[in-house]
Amino acid sequence: MSDPNLSWSNQHFDVVVIGGGVVGAALLRRFTLEGAKALLLEKAPDILDGASKGNSAILHTGFDAPTDSVEHWCIRQGRKEFLDIHEALGLPLVKTGALVVAWSKEEQQRLPSLLEKANANGVDDVRMLSRAEIQQREPALAPGVTGGFEVPQEYIIDPWTTPYAYLLQALCNGATVTRNSEVLEGSFDGAQWHLKTTTGQCTADVVINAAGLYGDTLEQRLIGRSAFSIRPRKGQFVVYDKAASALLSSILLPVPTETTKGIVLTRTVFGNLLVGPTAEEQDSREDWSTDSQTLEMLHATAVRMLPALADIPITATYAGVRPATEEKEYRIRALADQRYVAVGGIRSTGLSSALGIAQYVYNLYQREIGAAHKAIAEPAIPSELPQISEYGPRLWQAADNGGIVCHCELVTQADIDRALCGPLPAKTLAGLKRRTRATMGRCQGFYCTARLAALSEQHLDEPIAEHYE
Amino acid sequence: MNKEVAIIGGGPSGLAAATTLKRLGVERVTLIEREAQAGGIPRHCGHPPFGMREFGRVLDGPRYARRLVERADKLGVDIRCSTSVVSLQPHGVLTLSDNNGQSHLKAERVVLATGVREGSRAARFIGGDRTRGIVSTGALQSLVYLEKMRPFKRPIIIGSELVSFSALLTCQHAGIKPCAIIEQNPRITARLFALGLPFVRGVSVMTHTEVVRILGDGRVTGVVVRNLNSGKEETIDADGVIVSGRFTPESTLARMGGLMLDPASGGAAVDQYGRTSDSRIFVAGNALRPVETAGWSWREGVKIGQLLAEDLLNEPADTLPECSIMVHEPIRYVVPQRIRLPLSKNNLGDVQLRVSRPVKGKLFVKINGKMIWSRRLHSLPERRITIPIKIFSVLDGGEAIEIGLSE
Ligand SMILES: Cc1cc2nc3c(=O)[nH]c(=O)nc-3n(C[C@H](O)[C@H](O)[C@H](O)COP(=O)(O)OP(=O)(O)OC[C@H]3O[C@@H](n4cnc5c(N)ncnc54)[C@H](O)[C@@H]3O)c2cc1C
Ligand SMILES: Cc1cc2nc3c(=O)[nH]c(=O)nc-3n(C[C@H](O)[C@H](O)[C@H](O)COP(=O)(O)OP(=O)(O)OC[C@H]3O[C@@H](n4cnc5c(N)ncnc54)[C@H](O)[C@@H]3O)c2cc1C
């Protein structure tokens, strides 16, 4: 449907990556750059429609990750690679730094052990701060802070353009991405994989499962059993008007508990401030709903920490769902004899670690499966990425932008054309939003819905509105 | 006079201010409008009544908007459409964006006439799924009247303010059949709406009811509502939601530009001349407060035009004495929020306020604790309430003004 050209169907690939989240995107990029002929299959009408569509957008250091875990390694390597490539790819990065703050005696007492852990995790620039130092750095903070420490290298990045750029770089170096293609079944005949999807079929030497919230069910489909089971964990957020971002400079992290990193206050690269996420266990993998009590609670929590937020309008609310499992670790393993790699349970750090995961998996692939390719000597760089960060140049500032369509987020017609007509074009309203930010601002579509409906009419699988007579 | 006035927003109030300034001989009046056409909200209100005050006859919104634009055009207002004001800087400098990219404009005085919008689903914390098919009345009107498109066929309408009635009319125009109107309060908010509703068939009116959750999977599939009396929940089968009313001034430029805001009205805090905390910047129309009619906003624009023509003769008034007005529950907001001395005859007009719940009692004004004015008040939320501005002529500066209600 969305990719009418089924040129990928009936072809053979070195590697097929199943899942178009941030993890799949990074995997496709890595394998392509290493010289493999790679295909990514995504079941949704657009990419980034699973766990990767809603997160806190923090580039973590891994200071609080389980020491010596695979997760820890992947975060460290992933952020390192991100820092190496983000400029070349034109990806925004805001070096906010983070403060872990305690609001009670109990929390205060837990700080030293967290600091120690950070050091053990190789994050050695963390530093204890007194109450006065914290207040000096963040004057808008409520007076109840008892103390904390800084993690200077926790940063914020763009949660959507980042994985999108990975995919675009894979594409311009020869990879294939197809959407609306759910992998229904697969079998390994001892020599190669046979995959059947809702839109076509193909064969592959190696299959990588990066199906996020469906990692376990996909594994079941492919190899008849699953080594892990997904325990979806929802996180709700409240986003404040851009005026709020002047109230806070660092990411404000709470003292984490065993099960969650806790409720964070952070700026976004889009110039907003957000509070969240919650950590709510649920059975459903498809329930992205918010509820008013939780939103009220988040708002109250945010106002308690940053009282000036009480007078700042609320822009948006959303929820993300983490693909957690029964264990507190990534579930990455290779089955050499079946030429299968599972990349499961990438629950709450996948945006930071994806490039590291891709390295880790490529190493496994070489080592366990014994495959080898000739890396592309000079990989192409994708052009015309979305320019949606408030901290970088925007098209409304440039000539021939076609005029602003979404007034709150200053999205021009040129931004929209790029998203609808570029490589891997948006096929849903949600996809269009993630590529442009249109309708995501304070008016939530009051001003621009009609214009957007007209501009996107011929492009979206499910149009915003239809003509009537 | 060769001083430039920039008016931001080409709705009734901005057009009125621009037209008046031209009439009074101000040469350089630039009106900046981000839409492709000026006219503001009435451009997509495809129904009467508009224009009684301005043209002495009843017009529908689009015709009314066109006539206001023609009048401004004829008088030589420089109307720049498809141009957005992106930010306000000190000293009357505006950052603009249009098809040519970014540019700047410096004006001697600036009028914010940016109007109101409705409160979004997110801002109201209405829970449930994130799906297509949830729109404000404004978005629905623009879809229907400007693009001839409709986003659904069987929506529910949340809210029962006057604008919800417009939502209903817009639906009828586009062959959309709303199935229910959900109002949280025990009664319908708008009088006209309450009178008209019994004549609309097929729409069930559910007062004292709140929306618990919107259901959907890509698009709206239903809405769960709860009756606040009985606590009973039910699911309404609907394919869309119109989130109407709960207006809020479009104060982005003021807020981001560091002007003092009034959290109660949601607009910039002003004196009786519509002057903000930056003495070069004024506000007119619904950007002042939620929400008035087009005619009222137009009249405020005229007044701002008149007083600006005079204000332009002087340096920006920075140092005049002033008194702030305090209000408390059940008074929801007051405009202006402060009185500047001296009280000259060119001003925005009477002090305006609204209550947050049905009230019955005595509305009073105290100055330094002493009652100077009162009257009986029996009112409902969203009804216009005014206090004569001239009662404040007794002020010397520095006094505390309190407006309250004894029930
Ligand atoms: C509330 C919250 C806050 C977070 N905050 C941060 C943060 O600040 N920093 C950070 O680094 N990380 C954060 N994360 C974590 C990060 O978002 C996740 O780790 C990451 O998105 C997981 O990506 P994924 O690619 O594994 O899964 P997904 O994004 O779910 O991708 C899997 C894809 O596979 C597709 N799929 C499933 N089954 C099939 C099939 N059979 N055939 C084809 N396709 C299929 C799905 O449609 C989906 O698109 C947060 C997560 C949440 C929920
Ligand atoms: C959905 C809806 C329906 C309504 N229906 C009615 C009705 O039926 N009858 C009635 O009397 N009143 C109605 N109103 C009230 C309406 O606000 C007034 O009729 C009237 O439009 C107010 O005039 P205004 O000039 O203050 O603002 P608006 O008419 O809103 O005009 C503001 C203008 O400013 C422009 N603008 C805003 N920001 C910028 C910027 N940064 N740069 C450039 N331009 C900018 C906007 O594009 C807009 O054209 C309705 C309001 C809404 C929201």
TrEMBL record, chain A:
Signal peptide: none annotated. InterPro entries: BFD-like_2Fe2S-bd_dom, BFD-like_2Fe2S-bd_dom_sf, FAD-dep_OxRdtase, FAD/NAD-bd_sf, G3P_Oxidase/Oxidoreductase. The keyword Oxidoreductase applies. Residues 404-455 form the BFD-like [2Fe-2S]-binding domain. Keywords: Oxidoreductase. GO terms for molecular function: oxidoreductase activity. It comes from the Bacteria. Residues 14-361 form the FAD dependent oxidoreductase domain. This is FAD-dependent oxidoreductase. It comes from Spiribacter salilacus. The lineage of its organism: Bacteria, Pseudomonadati, Pseudomonadota, Gammaproteobacteria, Chromatiales.
UniProtKB/TrEMBL annotation, chain B:
GO terms for molecular function: oxidoreductase activity. InterPro entries: FAD/NAD-bd_sf (IPR036188), FAD/NAD-binding_dom (IPR023753), Metab_Enz_Cyan_OpOx_G3PDH (IPR051691). Transmembrane segments: none annotated. SUPFAM superfamilies: FAD/NAD(P)-binding domain. Residues 4-294 form the FAD/NAD(P)-binding domain. Keywords: Oxidoreductase. This is NAD(P)-binding protein. The lineage of its organism: Bacteria, Pseudomonadati, Pseudomonadota, Gammaproteobacteria, Chromatiales.
